[in-house]
TrEMBL record:
Signal peptide start and end residues: none
Domain of life: Bacteria
Species assigned in the record: Tessaracoccus flavescens
SUPFAM superfamilies: Concanavalin A-like lectins/glucanases
Protein name: DUF1349 domain-containing protein
Length: 194
């Protein structure tokens, strides 16, 4: 399968942002205050207001999103969103939490879990996140754009599900978050984990 650049116009928003404008090939997204994706675990609430720009993600395919981590308020986030339905989805990317940019993934089916790792060197940098779908799993890799991508997580995902995926941005605690997305690609899934 050849790598195909996806036009921003090919996606459908899960929840529209305040604004989304194309500029010099980039997509500039302004998030709504309180936007987020989370289900129940530890916090007790359900948030279904994320800004995911998605299109179909078939089996044996991967999607990549590149964005700049130019944000520094609690829970500001950008990355990639993979969704089958309201209770089966995953988000992966960089979220600013507890004073640091954190590389993480939230896997939800039906409740959310969250894995994170501090990535201070990624602050203000251009990051690439890749999610491969194969069989009953999603495989997440990430890295600074231009560097080799490292394995972040392997998560269960229903093999039979019709899924969609694409860029994600959210601002759970403030108004005015603006995220710049640079690229969106569809390509073949990773051939192996290692």
């Amino acid at each position: 399968m050849e790598t195909t650049r996806i036009a921003w116009s090919e996606g459908i928003w899960t929840h529209p942002p305040v604004d989304a404008v194309e500029r010099d090939g980039d997509l500039i997204v302004t998030c709504a205050e309180g936007s987020d994706a989370w289900r129940t675990t530890s916090y007790g609430f359900v948030h279904e207001s994320e800004h995911g720009l998605v299109r179909p993600l078939p089996q044996d395919c991967a999607m990549e999103v590149t964005f700049t981590t130019d944000y520094d308020q609690q829970f500001d986030q950008a990355g990639i969103f993979v969704v089958a339905d309201q209770t089966c989805w995953m988000k992966a990317g960089v979220e600013f939490a507890d004073g640091h940019p954190q590389l993480g993934a939230v896997v939800t089916n039906p409740n959310s879990d969250w894995s994170v790792a501090r990535m201070d060197a990624w602050a203000g940098r251009r990051v690439r996140v890749r999610v491969s779908r194969s069989g009953d799993a999603l495989t997440v890799r990430a890295g600074l754009d231009g560097d080799e991508l490292a394995l972040v997580r392997v998560a269960p995902f229903p093999a039979e599900a019709e899924a969609a995926a694409g860029p994600l941005a959210a601002a759970p605690t403030r108004a005015g978050l603006v995220v710049t997305f640079h690229e969106w690609f569809l390509t073949a899934s990773d051939s192996s984990l290692h």
